[in-house]
């Protein structure tokens, strides 16, 4: 099995130009002179034509002509595809657009002098693809006529099988992601060719992240079955954003080169030097030796169990399901699709885990790591390491010894080592954990959890309902106004910063918590705490210790859901404040709501069976009487101050 080996060569080669934004190139011999011409779509809806005035093996593209041969502006975000859909010997044009439609321009001229008729929309039974349609016409089932795959903005591939004929196409209703294809994130741009030279068509799909995903066809030319995707295989690279791949033998050397459009309107060429090897390891013991000057790959994709493989080890290693293998001078590694442990070497490796819960470590070098499906762990030690994940592929985590920003679709990051490095989240609900040094953790959007661990850390949650773990008096929490309801869990004495609403004391130490000007919720731990709400309408719950609670200004609530200790309320105000009692603890109080008047008494003890909450105005004690007779079952709740004009309305059962 032979495979392409691409190497980045140039941007806008042979006279191609920047088309503005979102280049979508396609290469065909439109004038039938034996060399490949270029059609490139762009963001504003025009198609630029570059005639090849050179030769078949030395292309020279003339200055661009906009919308030639009768083509028109086709909307926005256009993607052209030229094929002989009616089998009349000339090339017709289909142009996908942002609306999700295909504009069809039939060639009423000749193979050498095209003339495109006025456009029709979604002919032959095609339908709206959703948004940003990107078509690819191929005979995927080897029945002699052209079927169509249409990528869309959501990252899906819609397939219309041609149930007509080579001359009279009739497309069946769309199927989404057939034959094992899957959502590639956003903005799918498909193309197909026989990448592994085994006689069937493989899928290459560009996406918004700038990557090209390779779905190897492990079925047949008649019945395709696409394997789990590999990211940027065979030497392809991330083109920054909006990858739109096209494959053509641009230099007439007998193999297909890759020409990839990107966000800024450029076309990047990756020439194919297919002399490199693509090595397959089986269950038998293997000795696998690559070529130092080439990008070689070893794959365990055919195995039915997990493997542990290291490209760093050049002597015989027990890879598990792969047997006793010896691997040398190999750059790239593909896992089994099970729970693999995959390790790179000092080179710039590309490592793909495929399915399973993988652990992937690129080691030295700027590596590209893709775990695929499953809950994957990535070890990052180089700022140039790229981690690739896609939507709905599991809960993934990065352990990084360098400052790092979470890529799309990766949820968690833990900083390792002893250096003062930083971590930044994405728009998911992330978990960011620091190391023992002073870190800066930034959550971004999403409901994030930030834990600096040791060191005086700076933690910024961003938008969302964020949770902060504070364990150092020097920790700093930063929140903006209107950025969500946020919480701090602190094992040290702590004062809430601006724009953070909630504080929970943790651990067993007698520490204190202070609120801010907002409406705060303050919760103590098992020790004796001092809680001060400050300004705002606060809720204070001391926990199981003997606590001192100060509401501060505002209408405050003092909540009690434990017994066996007596808290002191330092500033209870009959006018402003409320006491809440949990009825699962104080279970004789009845249903939730304001305590019934018959269950409240001012005095020294209960006088009848209805008296459950007694306020002693002389001592300031507030007590609970479980049986209402004063002869036992009395629990002191709190000291709230003497001489208060208390009524049952001050007590709320929850």
Structure commentary:
This protein has 654 residues and is an all-beta fold. The chain has 3 domains: 6-272, 5 Propeller (Tachylectin-2, Chain A); 278-544; 593-653, no CATH class. The protein has no helices and 60 strands. The strands form 10 sheets. The chain has a 17-stranded mixed sheet, with no helix packed on it. The protein has a 9-stranded mixed sheet with strand order 45-47-49-51-53-59-58-57-56, with no helix packed on it. A 6-stranded parallel sheet has the order 21-23-27-29-31-33, with no helix packed on it. 48% of the residues are buried. Residues 276-283 have low confidence and may be disordered.
Briefly characterize the structure.
The protein is mostly beta strands.
Keywords:
17-stranded mixed beta sheet; 654 residues; nine-stranded mixed beta sheet; Tachylectin-2, Chain A; mainly beta; 3 domains; elongated
Strand content: 25-35%
CA radius of gyration: 34 Å
Count the domains. Answer: 3
Span between N and C termini?
A: 71 Å
The CATH topology annotation of the largest domain reads as Tachylectin-2, Chain A
Global outline: elongated
Uncertain stretches:
276-283
Mean model confidence by pLDDT: 93
What is the strand tally?
60
Largest β-sheet summary:
17 strands, mixed
CATH superfamily of the largest domain: Glycosyl hydrolase domain, family 43
The CATH class designation of the largest domain is Mainly Beta
**CATH architecture call of the largest domain:** 5 Propeller
- Total number of helices: 0
- Proportion of helical residues: under 10%
Structural class: mainly beta
